[in-house]
Design a protein that fits this description.
Elements lengths: L3 H10 L6 E5 L7 E2 L3 E2 L9 E2 L3 E4 L9 E9 L13 E5 L11 E4 L3 E3 L3 E4 L9 E2 L10 E3 L3 E2 L2 H9 L4 E5 L3 E7 L3 E2 L10 E2 L2 H11 L3 E8 L3 H8 L7 E5 L10 H6 L3 E6 L3 E2 L5 E5 L2 E6 L3 H19 L10 E5 L10 E12 L2 E6 L9 H5 L2 E5 L11 E6 L8
Parallel strand pairs: 6-7, 15-18, 15-19, 16-17, 19-23, 21-25, 24-26
Antiparallel strand pairs: 1-14, 2-13, 3-12, 4-11, 5-7, 5-8, 6-10, 9-10, 20-22, 22-23, 24-28, 25-26, 25-27, 27-28
Helix pairs in contact: 1-6, 3-6
The protein binds ligand LQZAQKY5 and molybdate ion.
């Protein structure tokens, strides 16, 4: 058995970024930029007022009160074309260009004015409330560098830079094939000893959340013919995930059957719990992850291996699940040779750290504690027994990959 880190390295070594496409910036949130983006505009294009008030020369308001003659008006979207000279002021509004000759804005609260004159009661240093041309960015500046996940904030910047389209990685397509005679889809008629297939839906939702497109190939029955037929549809995918049939039982057909269809196995079995029978290889030219059938195993394998692989397919440096320190709410026994990922809740805080309680049953078939968990407690192989209050490492499960 190989370690979790070794397995991830082997997977990432085999993954290449997918191709690119050009899309509208309104569709770009969450997508990965494939090329640097340069501004097509200087912002602000000219010196502009940041306030409603009067454009003046700072020298004219060095001594207050100062009476100035109003010679015109500049509103956002328009301009005052004349030149401001000594003793003059221009009525100006937020976002309007500064008239030539003016260098300072006096907010209107600091003035008294009628039609023709303004009395400035509070002076201001030169440049007050003036946004210089190019304050934000200049034509030709690189505004965003690739690779980068486009955030809603980036979309605002792209729009302001007058960039309506961007080149992004296309979304990687991930084919998901469930296997097992016992499986039926949610809502279908279900026999006494059957179970509802939850795995592929869970992993599909993760693929979607991580920026990929899940392709559901359905459920293959535990026969070579069914598996061969279903896997044929993986052709257009960038990656294939099989769910179940990864272990050593007589009905675990993934490896023996797919080997005849072009599967070459890189590794099989990892020193982790759950997820031990994970398999990685190449199936007819595309990377393939063979995940164990138990839903918790496939979810944790997705966190540790599939999401970093999706990052790599999207041309990003692969992100690992973020870890943080926490305290145990109870004693914990020593670990064996497998790296352990255990579902737990967070109940309050002590010394600035979350306090975690493990679910008493960690069976990898159990979805209710998976859904209720706030975090996974991570334990290294052969970790020693710990007492209540000891420090441990967790992977928080709420929004672990923030993108806004
Ligand atoms: N003799 C051994 N037996 C097993 C070992 C072992 O090392 N030696 N490993 C165990 C571990 S650990 C796991 S994990 C499982 C993995 O088994 P498979 O990948 O072959 O998966 P299946 O046998 O097909 O299914 C396991 C379990 O999960 C349920 N399942 C399968 N698909 C789905 C689905 N789409 N949605 C929900 N649940 C699913 C299935 O009904 C089984 O209960 O092997 C152990 N055995
Ligand atoms: O490795 Mo299995 O995934 O413990 O249930």
């Amino acid at each position: 058995m190989i370690s979790v880190d070794e397995a991830r390295e082997k997977i990432l070594k085999e993954i290449r970024a997918v191709g690119t496409e050009v899309i509208s910036i309104s569709d770009a949130a969450g997508r990965v930029l494939a090329e640097d983006v340069r501004s097509r505009r200087t912002q602000p294009p000219a010196a502009m007022s940041a306030m409603d008030g009067f454009a003046v020369r700072a020298a004219d308001v060095a001594n207050v009160p100062a009476k100035l003659r109003i010679i015109g008006e500049s509103a956002a979207g328009g301009s005052f074309d004349g030149e401001l000279k000594a003793g003059e002021a221009v009525r100006i509004f937020t976002g309007a260009p500064l008239p030539p000759g003016a260098d300072t804005i006096i907010i209107q609260e600091d003035t008294e004015f009628d039609g023709g004159t303004v009395t400035v009661k509070e002076g201001a240093a030169k440049g007050t409330y003036v946004r210089a041309a190019g304050l934000d960015f200049r034509d030709g500046d690189i505004g965003l560098r690739a690779p980068r996940i486009v955030t809603p904030r980036d979309i605002g910047l792209l729009a302001a830079m007058n960039v309506p389209w961007v080149t992004v990685r296309r979304k990687p397509r991930v084919a998901l094939l469930s296997t097992g005679d016992e499986l039926v889809r949610p809502g279908e008629p279900v026999g006494e000893n059957q179970i509802i297939s939850s795995n592929s839906l869970l992993v599909a939702a993760l693929v979607d959340a991580a920026g990929g497109v899940p392709l559901d190939l359905g459920i293959a029955r535990d026969t070579a013919a069914s598996l061969r037929e279903k896997v044929r549809d993986a052709g257009s995918a960038d990656m294939l995930i099989t769910l179940g049939g990864a272990s050593v039982g007589d009905h675990d057909l993934i490896q023996p059957v797919l080997a005849k269809e072009g599967l070459s196995v890189d590794f099989w079995r990892i020193a982790m719990r759950p997820g031990k029978p994970l398999m990685f290889g190449n199936f007819a030219g595309i990377p393939m992850l063979g995940m164990p059938g138990n839903p918790v195993s496939s979810m944790i394998c997705s966190y540790l291996f599939l999401i970093p692989a999706l990052d790599a397919l999207r041309g990003l440096p692969p992100r690992l699940p973020p870890r943080q320190k926490a305290l145990l709410a109870h004693d914990l026994k020593q670990n064996d040779q497998r790296e352990d990922y255990m579902r737990a809740t967070i109940d309050g805080e002590e010394k600035g750290l979350p306090v975690v309680t493990l679910f008493p049953k960690q069976d990898s078939s159990m979805l209710s504690p998976l859904s209720a968990a706030d975090c996974l407690v991570v334990r290294a192989p052969f970790a020693k027994a710990l007492s209540k209050g000891a420090e441990i490492e967790i992977i928080p499960l709420h929004q672990p990959y923030p993108a806004v």
